[in-house]
Amino acid sequence: MSELHFDVIGADGPRAYFAQLTRDSIAHAYLFTGPPGVGKKTFARRLAQSLLCEAPKREVLGYDGTCNSCRLFAATEAARHPDFLEHTGVLKIGDSDAALGFYESEELTARDLVRQLSMQSYSGGMRVLLLGDIDFATHHAANALLKFFEEPPRGVVLLLTTSAPGRLLTTIRSRLIELRFPSLSQAQVRQILRTMDYDEEQAQLGASLGQGSVTRAIAALGDDEESLRTQVARWFFAVADGQTPEETWATRDTLDEGLEILKSFVRDWTARSVAGSSAPLVAVDYQQELGELPRLEPVDAIALLAKLDDAQRIARTNVTPTMVSELVRMALTGRASTRA
Ligand SMILES: [Zn+2]
């Protein structure tokens, strides 16, 4: 019998939770929460592979990597196992009767979802549905999911992931078992980057810039002129210099991440102000720009970081992204005026 493994870096809490379950004691629906880029969807895919693996086992976690089912998971990046369905993003209500499968359609409608949830397993085992970065277009779409909880079909496991659980209806959230995925350590981000196509030097830099998030590390490594980090940096250094630059970075999808990047610049700015040029910086690639900023007093730094935390909380409500970025701009500019 081949050895079972579960190839996930980090996520100790969720791993310990599932390690004590059997296939009979697993619940119908889980919600994985935590910051973007810490491996929630990766964990969910490996969990799905574990549940569908044909190797005989009682436990939940672990797959052999060699059975027919595992081969389907390895075949393509988007797994095409007939009993594993994955969708990322907004769930719409929609009333399309078109015979579109889960994969063929860009948009997942609540009706598709209900139909998928009621289908029988192809292999006679379980079915696993992963709804990544779940968001609902309307309350109607969310309500469609409630049907599932009223009468959960046998053998179906629903896995939802989100970095903004506060946006889910409490009627849905209360029926999910919630597991929190913490930020990754710098060493873990480096380790994950090494399993991808990054060499040691890039992995080190990415781990430093990623601050616990693989998504952020990858975004930072791609020195694309239009990467989110580049746009945020351009805006931040101009605002800190007293200018009113055009704001291009704040959209519904990028706001939280953009604010996280701003926080890292403010922390670096603080470190640089306190410890001078010997300060260890996260943004080693913006060393020069940080050095040219005026001194930031610790008391102002604390106030600024608190304002950014506030902005992140507001960003998770339905306030427009532009309004949030404007609040941040005023906080940054206000810092300058108290100094003057
Ligand atoms: Zn297998």
What can you see in these coordinates?
- The chain is 47% helix and 11% strand.
- A 6-stranded parallel beta sheet has the order 3-2-4-5-1-6, sandwiched between helices.
- Helix 7 packs across helix 8 and helix 13 packs antiparallel against helix 14.
- The C terminus is likely disordered.
- Bound molecules: zinc ion.
- The site of zinc ion has 8 residues, from helix 3.
Helix content: 40-55%
CATH superfamily of the largest domain: P-loop containing nucleotide triphosphate hydrolases
CATH domain fold name of the largest domain? Rossmann fold
Q: Roughly how many Å is the radius of gyration? A: 22 Å
Shape: globular
Structural class: alpha/beta
Secondary-structure element string: HEHHEEHEHEHEHHHHHHHH
| Gross CATH architecture of the largest domain | 3-Layer(aba) Sandwich
Number of strands: 6
Strand order of the largest sheet: 3-2-4-5-1-6
- The CA-CA distance between the termini, in Å, is 73 Å
Level-1 CATH class name of the largest domain: Alpha Beta
